[in-house]
Amino acid sequence: MKIKLEHLEVFMTLDKNQCQVVNARKQIANIIYSQGAGLGLAGQALAVKMWNGRDETEYTDEEGKIIRELVERTTAPCFIDAVSAAINDDAASDDKEDK
Predict the structure, then answer these.
(1) Is residue 50 a contact partner of residue 8, using CB atoms and an 8 Å limit?
(2) What HEC string does 26-70 produce?
(3) Consecutive 10-residue averages of pLDDT for the chain (99 residues)
(4) Distance (Å, whole) CA 2 – CA 86
(5) Residue 72: what pLDDT?
């Protein structure tokens, strides 16, 4: 799966009137590297893969799960919503391609 995180729209208000576009890929890579206790070498490999990657980088379903879980555990709700939308957008794209 491809998770587009380089131009992530993060809505700063509930009414979605204020938005910031951020490059979340390296930010999430740092979260995995610094707060991914229990992930071991797989966590380190994912952090490096994200750091060196780009929007076209392919992630496994397991890597997507790790990204989602760490973001949910360590970041603000507005950021969680944005990352979840990026992951779900990719899953929807994959479903369309399979049909």
Answers:
(1) no
(2) HHHHHHHHHHCCCCHHHHHHHHHHHHHCCCCCECCHHHHHHHHHH
(3) 94 95 95 92 95 92 94 96 90 59
(4) 9
(5) 96
Instruction: Name the 3-class secondary structure at 23.
Output: coil
pTM, rounded to two decimals: 0.83
Task: State the Cα–Cα distance between residues 12 and 36, nearest whole angstrom.
Answer: 26
As a whole number of angstroms, the distance between CA 13 and CA 38 comes to: 33
The pair of structure tokens assigned to 46 is 């994912």
| Tokens 């229990």 -> residue | 38
**pLDDT score of 89:** 84
